Structures are given as structure tokens and as C-alpha cells.
From TrEMBL, chain A:
Residues in the signal sequence: 1-26
Top-level taxon: Eukaryota
Protein's cellular compartments: Endoplasmic reticulum membrane
Domain EMC1 first beta-propeller: 26-426
Domain ER membrane protein complex subunit 1 C-terminal: from-to ranges: 769-986
Keyword terms: Disulfide bond, Endoplasmic reticulum, Glycoprotein, Membrane, Signal, Transmembrane, Transmembrane helix
Keyword Glycoprotein: yes
Protein name: ER membrane protein complex subunit 1
GO terms under cellular component: EMC complex
UniProtKB/TrEMBL annotation, chain B:
Family: Belongs to the EMC10 family.
Cleaved signal peptide residues: 1-29
CDD domains: EMC10 (cd22209)
Name this protein carries in UniProt: ER membrane protein complex subunit 10
Assigned keywords, A-Z: Endoplasmic reticulum, Membrane, Signal, Transmembrane, Transmembrane helix
The organism of origin for this protein: Oncorhynchus tshawytscha
Amino acid sequence: MKPPAKMSKPTSLFVIFFSLFVMSEAVFEDQVGKFDWRQQYVGKTLFAHFDSHSQSSKKLFLATDKNIFASFNSRTGDLFWRHVDKVGPEGTIDILLLHGQDALMVVGGGRLLRSWDTNMGGLNWEAVLDTGSFQAACFVAIQDTVKHVAVLKKAVISLHYLTNGHQKWVENLPDSDTVQYQAVYSGGEEEVYVLGVVPNSHLTIIAYSLEDGEIIKQRSVEAPWLSSVESSCVVIGQGVLMCVDPATLALYTLPIQAEEAPQFNQILLQSLDLEVSLGFQPVLVSSQPHPARSPISEFFLQLGPDHHVLLQLNADGYTIAALRDFQPAFLVSFATTGEKTVAAVMTPKNETACDINLFSADSGRRLLDTTVIFPLDLNGGKPFKLYVHAFLKKDDSVGYRVLVQTQDHALTFIQQPGRVVWTREEALADVVTMEMVDLPLTGTQAELEGEFGKKAAIQDGLFPMVLKRLSSQVILLQVWLAHLWKLFYEARQPHGQVKNEVTIETLSRDEFNLQKMMVMVTASGKLFGIDSKSGSILWKHYLENVQPNAVFKLIVQRTTAHFPHPPQCTLLIKDKDTGLASLHVFNPIFGRKSHIAPPALPRPILQSLLLPVIDQDYAKVLLLVDDQYKVTAFPSTKNVLQQLQEMASSIFFYLIRSDQGNLSGFRLRKDLSTERIWEVVLPTEVQKIVAVNGKRPNEHVHSQGRVMGDRSVLYKYLNPNLLAVVTESTDAHPERAFVGVFLVDGVTGRIIHEAVQRKARGPVHFVHSENWVVYEYWNTKSRRNEFSVLELFEGTELYNSTVFSSLDRPHLPQVLQQTYIFPSPITTMEATLTEKGITSRHLLVGLPSGAILSLPKMFLDPRRPEVVTEHSREENLIPYAPEMPIRTEWFINYNQTVARVKGIYTAPSGLESTCLLRFCAGCSPMMEVVAYGLDIYQTRVYPSKQFDVLKDDYDYVLISSVLLALFFATMISKRLAQVKLLNRAWR
Amino acid sequence: MASVPRSFLLLSIIPTILILCADFACCNTGRKTGDGLDTDFSGFSVPLEHSFQVDDVSRFRMRGALQLRGGRETSVSLSQSQLSEEDRNTLKVGEEVAAVDGLYKIRVPRVSLTDRQTERQMDGYLTAFVRACSLVESHLSDVITLHTDVSGYLIGVSIVTIPGACRGTEVEDEVDLEAFNTTLTIIAPTNAPQPETALFIERMDIEHEKRGKPQEQKSFFAKYWMYIVPLVLFLMMSGAQDQSGGGAANGGGR
């Protein structure tokens, strides 16, 4: 991208200020992807299947915990298509079965049976299943062709046609209140077997006729050691049930199809010379390559975390032979191609890599030249699951590709001989919080900055300063020459070979501070550093032992502005249930863990707050309040503690206990204990607190007031300590339900404003910024979404114009409020933020459709007049209209929809500040917007148009050639005129 | 933290009772008091307590009694006693609380204005504070606001002094610190506005009517007949000439 050139156009400025209506969010077709990027994710893989329909197929099918069914290109890792189902248990994928071109899925805990066309991703059919929780499903084949699918539920088994989903028959299971039916098996015969268990008593086997669902036979087998079929039994060979019992350390076999009263046959593991690791629950792994045929008679028995044994059931159906012992081996998996079944085994090689080898399943012999190396990422998780795609090569030997899923939800696809084809970081499907950090200056830039630093000027005299200046100029010249040489060198390279990759080494701040580092925290505990310009992942760090219910808070303690001190971020990880927390301190540019030891936090943490106090190393001080209202400071150097003691009486903080409806304020004491100074209690029997929002600390408000039509000024009530508390009524009746909005001063606990939105309920989304609060709710009476805006004004006179203090502001502000109808539900809302706050504000609204709407704040202005007057026209107020429009050109992400938007992050770019220095009149600030949810979308928005920046398609060549031509033309014509004058003079 | 030793509370009440001269502040929600309805609710009183200690430990003592009247017309009045000599000393003469940036705290128990049954069941207090120095400098003129929620529960209390700043001015006259000059208000939540559809439609209708009358749409022909007729006439004339000329030429050709 060409850097946006800067140009002073003071005349056009006024035009633009008065034509703010016209927004410039729309992009031209050739600008697509130039300033924005999108990455689509699917989440943690639950089921994965390779398309084995044809040999050359490139498809890979995944079903994930985010209720997504997706197809990937296995050569590139790109998404072919994906289907995003409902959030929550209604859309969970219970099972994914693949046969030929059909992918069968049971959705929503046994609610629906769906068949997808794997080629195009279209839905073949959908069948509603009977109620009851889902247990198991399998394909049922008849004479080598798969025609049906059997679905086993808690009390019912049903058989469906594969072609249209129609139910062939449905049967109630006998004694379903005592017997837990857990497995269904079909070996290609005329019968479907259902296996149920009465824990620690007996096993029930029922054979159903395929034709009409009649019970052919019903057997009950004594099995006092068996508690669950699902976890400890598999079917192998010619219908032999193989179970493992960790208590007696024995394997049990039972022919399912046996006619007479069958008995379990016990084989002690000791007799096979096998030993189970202490406290480990042994696991059986089997494989049924084709639903029309019985499973293979080989199976894996896992005896410990890294110990597997390949066993074979002999032809007699009773005895077992050990084929091969794999120790150490992390993961094993079977794969079948044609008639050959192979076993893939992952064994550790060294610290940084694992080996994957293929073994013939029927003999346990290692297949030659099948070693693949899986590189272990030290900043990633351990391997978790192996999906193998085997195929026959031309010489009839078995080749394979392997998909490795690691604990951090990453997927790595590896091809022989050990080339990583692609990696997908699926942890990014669940980003919890993020921050943007400025990139560091390069060495030379830092040198220049340092030259003009205050310290330097005081220390050095005049002469050293001159020398310094000269030396830095020389360095700059050197860098420039090196840059030129690089350009020249690259130009000589054939096109396409020039690598334009961003690496951590080449990272540096650009002229306008457009490129930043996005630090993303995901729910799985993996941290990412992403380049905001290209979206490439520059670093990642997996935090192990993060609880699944952890809450994260990311704090930037030191920005990049304090060279040579490295920037520092702190992640507060808190267990939601116990409240126990830990800190992870790292460098946001490189992702490395900092050497600074965070304090130990033995007590549950209630609140964390970042103070504007900085220590001698320019790190902001983080205060952590524990459940005994004791405060821990980080960093807690002597300097910091001293500062805290001095400031203690002016450090206030608040705590919210939403379960008790309690808001209370505290003041710090000199000994870092606290004192409760105010308390507001919202009775929980009436309403419950759903959200509390303060203002962003890095928010700047440029203008103190608004100039009204009669040239007087209406001053804004700009209280930085103001909290917006939103409550919902406990009474859910549509007539009596309400949403409460409380504006509370966080220092004094004074309720500044208290409003009730009647006949309304949540979910409430709200934004609190400057002097306004915008909230959105559901109107239960009119059944629509509505937006309401509250603005606070001090009036036409300021109480104390120099400084705001919550303690000295006796008069309550004037509150103006207006409500509008919004024609769409919303999923998330955020306000734009620029460095100096000059620009007109916009609201960024994430819609369920995946669009992100940039709604000008002008439309949400409680001063919009109902009747247009001279004054309101002077003030540029839009006349009131009850409905808020949604204009398609306000969609900042055009067709790049973001599924399930969870959060929107805006970061100001440096453009506003730089232009502030140059032309005080105005500038075209820009900000980076990142929307995250299932997908991540990054773009730039210009809320006040890009009026002082040249367009990126600006024709430099034309302008400069015209200029040059004009220049020469004037030169020549001047010369000619001179000659002419001379000639005339001679005449 | 906020618990008060019972014995201490008793002791502190005794001197306040002895002082007969009571200051009185009264307010209601803006409606007229003394309506007949008010007599239905005899009202009830809750203690207003305050604390101003040097050592940051809150020891609440009785300041006065809030007379609350619930029902349709919520009103509140406060009867409070003068500050005792000792208290004045603590607050000002000793200049302890004010000097060390101490806080003057008040609290009221959580009560419901409408539902008298549940009043005693709720425990806990609502607390607010103001800087002690500003209270001294404002000569004990404070504004106490009680906030209720939709169903009449007290949810918060706030206190501010007018003026609110601490400028460090000495309060010379002892008498200024004897009696509180309290303004008392009770605030219930306001109803947030609904979208004003009815008004908008009405306005649109009016505008429509206004616009509708003068702009009676004439047809295109009715508007511009004076231009069209001569043009057509001219075309017809010239056309006729051409035709006759053409016809003649054709005829000549044959």
C-alpha cells in the first residue's frame, strides 16, 4: 500500500465540517481487501473426516464445539463452506457420520437428523427425531450397500432411509427406565444390535430385525464389573464385544450374535504380560472401515498416558495375541484405504518434534518410508488427537496425510515426508479480549526521539548536541541508502519471488502509526500477537492449566512509548467460581514472558484497577483488591508504595456484587487497606444488575460543550468517574418488566440519574462515553428493538471549568433523553475512539446478520427537535424521526460478514495527533476497528472523511508530469519571450 | 466495618434527646403536602446517623430522624438536633477530621416506603459521604437526597454541601457550626421516554396537508400547453411543406 500522502486543504475543511451527513464508509470495488482483512474460524474440532469418496479429493469435514459444520481444502487449509448453527445446546452437533457423498449429523441433543451433500455443502434433507436424549448412531448396511441409519436414544431406536430421511421404523426400547442403552451396532447382517447396561449388574443385548423393527432376540448377560458400555467396550472382529475392566485388570469378550445364553470370557491382562499405569483408566480403540462389513479384529489398548498396545483377536474369538507394544506413544489411530488397514502411531522424538509412523494393522509390522515429523510448538499445546487420511500410491504402497489436533485447538496438516502444509489456529474462534499496542520504533527512530528527549537536553551542552545531531543524520542517511539498495535488489529479482512477509524482526512503526500489534486472548488460554495490517500471526503463547471457566482481563501496563523499556502487558486470569487469580506478564510485541515476577495472589480477587501512577520504569501501577478488601500493588517497588501512600486519600474504587445488588465505594488507606465509604443497594427482589460500565480511561473529549443556535454554549457534564449501571426487572411479565438505568458517580456513590424504561427487557447492550449513554433493549409491548440515548449537560454555565472533581460538583446535571426504534436486533455495540476526540463519534453496531453498522452519533442525539426551528437548523440538528434508519452504505464490512460478533475493538491511529501538530484546524482521524466473534475482521474507518489525505489511487505520475511539463513550458516560453524582446529592442 | 456497638449507640442518643432545640427540614416530591391522603399513612421514622472520626473507623451516631411518608405521595422530613459542643470540636476546633482530609459519613437503614411489612426484614445501611472540610466551610449547609427505586425501596442516599469546595478558609464563628441547614429531597426514578411515533405521524400528516393543497398536480400538458401548441403547429406546418415537396419530387421521378 502506498502511504497516504498528506496535503493541506484548509478551504475544503469547512465544506466538510458542514457536510458531515455524507459518510465515506463505502469502499470501491478495487479497494476490497486493501485496508481490511477477515479470517474465518470454526472452533474446536469434535469430529473430523476426510473425504474418501474419491482418491484425489481435497475435502476435509469438521464438526466443532461452536456448532459448525465446515469443509476445508486439505491442500491449503482454506474454508470451502461452513454452516453456522444456533448457539448453545440447541445447535450442538452430537455426531457426524460420513458415507460416500452424504454427511449425516445429529443436532441439538437428538433433536434433528440432517444429511448434507458433501460436494456443495447443501442440505439433502432434515428429519425431526422423537424426543429423548441422544445416545448413539450408526450406518446400517444390507448386502454391502448402506441404505439406512440407526439412531439410538434413551428410550427409542429408529431407522431412517439414507436417501430421504424418512423413518423406516421406530421402536420403544424395553425397560428403558432401568437399562441404560448406550451403543448400537450393525455388522452388515439382517439385524441391528442395541447394547444396554444396568450398571454393575448385567448387560442387555437386543437384536432388532432390519425389516420391521421386531425384536428377534433379547439376551441378558451377567456383568457385575461393567458400569458403562460407551467408555469401556468396543465391537471387534465378527461381532465380538470387547470390554476392559480397570478393577480386575482384565479384558472380557462376548460374541454378540451368540444363540445360547452367552457368557463373558475373561482374559487377564497379566496373562498377556501387560500392565496398566497406576490410576489410569484403560481405553480401547477399534476400527470399522466399512459399515457393511464387520470391524477388523485388531485393536489398540491404551495402558497409560503414553503406552499403547496393538492386540489381535484370534480367529477362535476367545484368545488374544499381542502384536506390538508402543511405548512411548502419545496417540494412535487406524486408517483404511482399499483393503488395507494401517495404524498410525505418534511417538516423541525429541523436545521439539514427534514422529508419526505407519504400521500394518494385521501384523504390527512397520511400513517403510512412512515416517512423518510433527514439529512440537513450544508455545502451543500438546498433541491431542490424530486424524489419518491413508491412500494407495501408484506402486500399491500406502501413503498418508495426517491432521493433528493439539490441546490449544490448533489443527496442523502434515504431508509426507513431514512437510507442514497448513496450520489453523482455531483458538481464535473464541477471542475473549484484545488490546492494540503500538509497534516499537526502529533503532534509528528511537535514536532521533532520544535526541530530543528532555533528559538529553538537560544533560548535554550545545556542542555534544550538534555532534549527536550530525551522527543521527549520518545514521539516517545510511538507513536510507540501505533501503534504496534493497529496493534495487528486489527489483532485479524475478517477479513473485519477492517475499513481502512480515516477521517480528522487520516490525516497526510506520509514519502514521497505522500498523499495530493486536494482542488477542482466547478462551482456551492461548495468546496471539497479530499484525493489524496483514492479519498474520506473529507470535503465539499457550498458557497451560487455564480453567475452562476462566475470566480474563488484559491490561497494558507500559506502552511502547518508553524506550528503552520494553512494553509490558499483564493478563489477569481469574477462576470464575473460586475467584482465585494469577497474573501473566509478557511483552506484547514478542509475546515473551517477562522476567518480572508477578505477586502471588493467595486470596480471591474482586477487582483490579489500573492507576495513572507510574513507577520509575514507566509502568502503570495495577491494584488488585482481594476478598478481604486488602490491596496488592503490582509492581510493588518502594517507589510505587511511597507514591501510593502519598496519594492514598485520593484513590477511590468501587466494587459491585451483582448477586446482592450491592454497589459500594472504597477509599485506600495509607497501609494499603481500604475503607468503605459509600453503599448503594438495589434490592435483588425487584431488579438485578446486568451490566456496569465506566468510561474508557484513554478517552479524550475535545470540546467541553456544544454551541447552540443562539450562540450560547451548552456545557457537557463530563464526569470521568461516572458509572452506568443497567438493571433488569426480576418480574418477566411483559407489562411489568422494565430496564433500569442508573448513573452513579464511582467516587461518591451519588446517584446522578435514575431512569426506568417500562415494558422493556434485555438483553441490554449499551455504550457509555463522553457525556452520553446509549442503550438498546427489547420493547415487550411493541415487540421491537429500541435505542435510547441519554445525554448529560451542566447547563449554560460551568461550575468549575478548570478541573473536574466528583467531590466538588454539588449540582445535578440536566438529563436529556430520546428513544428511537431500531429495525434490527443487535449483538454488540461499541463507540469509536480517536486519539484526541475531535472527530464526530460513531457507534459501531454488530448485527446478527454479521454486518457491522457504523451509526453516526448525530442520529442518536436527544436534542433532535420535533419541530424544526431556525436555531436547530443553525445547529445542524436532524429533525426527530422515531425510526432509526439502517443504510447499507453504513456497513463498514460490506459483504465480509462476521459471524456471531462478540466484541468490537477500536483503536485510534496516530493520524489525528500528527495532523494536529501540523494544522491546528483539523484533520482526518482514522481508527482501526476489529470485530471478533467466530471470525475476526479488521478494517479502518474515517468517521469524518479522509479530507486531508490523498486518495490511494491518486495519480502521482500524471500530476508530476504535468508539473514538469508546465515548468519546462514556462522556461521555454520565458526564453522565447526574452529572445523576442531582444529582437524587438534591436529593431 | 459499619457495625456499631449497641451500648455506644445508646449513649450517643441520650445527649441528642436532651437538646430540645431541634432544627427542622422538610420536603416532598414537589406536590402539595397536607392533602387528605397523607393522613392515611401515618408515616414512620428512620434514624439518620452520621460519623466523623479521625482514625478512619466509622462510629455512627444519631443525627436526626427522617419522617418518611409513603403511599401515593412520598414525602420526607427530617428533624435533627444541633451539634454538640464535643462534636463541633471534633469537626472543626480540633480541625482533626477536616485537616487530615477526613470524611463525614451519613447512613440510613434500608427501608421500603410502600411495603411496611418488609421494612424490618431488610438489613444493612445505605451510606454516603462528603469531605468534612467542605461541610465545615459551608457552615453545615448540606443537601441530602434519598433515592428510591420503582417499588419504593430506598436504594441510595447522597450528601453534598453547597459550596462543595475545600478552600481552607477558617470558620471563625462557632455559631455557624451549631445547626445543620439541610435541604432534603427524595427522588424516584423517572420514566424514560418511548419512541414518539404518534406525534411524528401527526406532524407528518399536518405537513402533508400543508404541502398537499397548493401543489395540486397539474398534468404535464396543462402546464406547458403554451409551449407545446406552437411547437406542434410549427412542426405540422413544416411537415406539410416537406410532404408536398417530397410528393412533388416523387412524382417527378416517375
